[in-house]
Amino acid sequence: MDQLRRRLLAGAVGGVLAAGVAGRADAALATSTDPAAAAWSRVPRIRRRIKPPRFPGRTFPITDHGAAGDGDTMCTQAFRDAIAACSAAGGGRVLVPAGTYLTGAIHLADDVDLHLEAGATLRFSRDPADYLPVVHTRYEGIELMNYSPFIYARGRTNVAITGDGVIDGQADAGHWWDWSSDPPPTEGPDKKLLASMAEQGVPVEERVFGEGHHLRPNLIQLYECRNVLIEGVTVKDSPMWNIHPVLCTNVTIRRVTVDSPHGPNNDGCDPESCVDVLIERCAFNTGDDCVAIKAGKNADGRRVDAPSANVLVDSCVMRDGNGGVTIGSETTGGVSWVFAWNCTMSSPRLERAVRIKTNPERGGYVRDVYVKDITVEQAADAVVEVALNYENKHTGPYFPDVGRIDIRRLRAGRAPRAFALIGNPGNPIRGLRVTNSVFEEMAEDDVVTDVTGFVLRNVWVNGRRV
To answer: What biological-process terms (Gene Ontology) are attached (predicted)?
Structure first.
């Protein structure tokens, strides 16, 4: 873990900010009668640290390197050459003009902004061979060597994907998504094999999957990068998770549309083991969680031991999905200081608005989660869910530590229930406060088990104050 990341984590996880003045301010705020107010005072400082990268004024059109926007010509080499030329010149913009460009894996380099003009579409090949050789990546919280994510970078500084164009993964029921379930070939055996390798401590470079295996890659994955910007683009139909920053620092995801409602595990944006992340003014229509904050899984999560911290979700719209703002299920490295506000969530197929999920195999912690000014017109399950028995696992050696969750000014229209809160016997959910919130038409009783410090203040359910 580099020095910058350690310094930021010292502030985020340990409660001591790098700047001494800010640290003294935090100490003064700790005496406030409203701990949530002290917590929210962190947001301006976090936001000031999150600065999008800037790039030189040079432009490198991919058409100068042999790309043709006819939708049929394979342009992988043209992207590779344009990115190499841009980075070698000291950085700038790799320009994708209007047109449809068929390509395999695109790997970004230092100081490169991949910019899609309006009318430009990246259409990714459906042939798995176009995502070889394998790269160092993560699959559901476990490191391995696998098919390259469609747009990928590892260990890069100052990388961006911007513009008004479309990034189309072209996954469908006959390509990539069919690996998620029977009939074979499916990902099930490979998931078990990868989990076993991680538990046994097999080195990552020996966990080689890719050709002959069936673990789906992400559409966009930026790995161990610093100063990341994704802005303006529309992404759709990923093999699985759409946008997946991993072990990154200083990430801005702004005005992005994720339109991928039909695919299995088609999460919208999943920052994992990242520090200082801003997700703002985005729209999500997904086949799984809209935003899911993660931190590695089980033995591999304990080996890497890298949390997510300082994640801001501001003014987003969530439509279809399993959860609007979600934490987990991969929580092993720990998640803290998550703030979400001014978000609108509604769909008959949006199952939950605020969701935390983990289990006694994951371990780690989830704490200091602050949510306010959320509008939920309709949800298909509980509006707020905190479940420590994810995947119906109630016992295990690594109980997660979940608590210090504050929700205020949430207004929900119709849903089966307001709350589903399921702790573990002997390891309860510790401290959930809901304030000044209204749940208008809830059809069923709440589920609340193994919870301590559950406080409702000025909360109304079905017209009655509770």
So the answer is: carbohydrate metabolic process
Angle at the Cα of 357 from the Cα atoms of 40 and 382, rounded to 5 degrees: 85
Pull the structure tokens for residue 409. Answer: 């000014």
Nearest by Cα to 112 from 147, 152, 148: 152
Q: Identity (one letter) of the amino acid at 245?
A: P
Cα-based torsion angle of the residue sequence 404, 410, 416, 420 in order, rounded to the nearest 10 degrees: 0
- pLDDT (tens digit, 9 = 90+) per residue, 253-266? 999 999 999 999 99
Place of tokens 């520090």: 275
The answer to whether the beta carbons of residues 369 and 406 sit under 8 Å apart is yes
**Residue 17 placed within a domain:** no
Q: What is the CATH number of the domain that holds 68?
A: 2.160.20.10
**What are 382's two structure tokens?**
């509980």
Q: In 3-state terms, what secondary structure has residue 108?
A: coil
Can you say whether residue 158 is alpha, beta or left, with left for phi > 0 and alpha for psi between -120 and 50 degrees? left
Q: Residue 295's domain spans which residues? A: 46-465
pLDDT score of 120: 98
The percent helix, strand, coil of the chain (3-state, each to 5) is: 20, 45, 35
Mean pLDDT for 192-196 is 98
Q: What is the pLDDT of residue 203?
A: 98
For 354, phi then psi, to 5°, come to -115, 125
Angle at 337 between CA 297 and CA 40, to 5 degrees: 165
- Does residue 20 fall inside a structural domain? no
Residue 398 forms part of a structural domain: yes
The pTM score is 0.93
Contact 18, 11 (CB under 8 A): yes
Listed in sequence order, the residues at least 6 apart from 114 whose beta carbon sits closer than 8 Å to its beta carbon are: 83, 94, 96, 106, 108, 151, 160, 161, 162
- CB-based burial label for 459 (10 Å; 0-12, 13-18, 19+): buried
E strand or H helix that includes residue 190: helix 188-200
Q: How far is CA 52 from CA 37, 238, 278, 349, 351, in A?
A: 27, 25, 10, 33, 33
* Contact status, residue 414 vs residue 353, Cβ threshold 8 Å: no
Structural domain count, the chain = 1
The residue to which tokens 């479940």 are assigned: 387
In the three-class reduction of DSSP (H, G, I as helix; E, B as strand; rest coil), residue 321 is classed as strand
CB–CB of 230/252 below 8 Å? yes
14 in a structural domain:
no
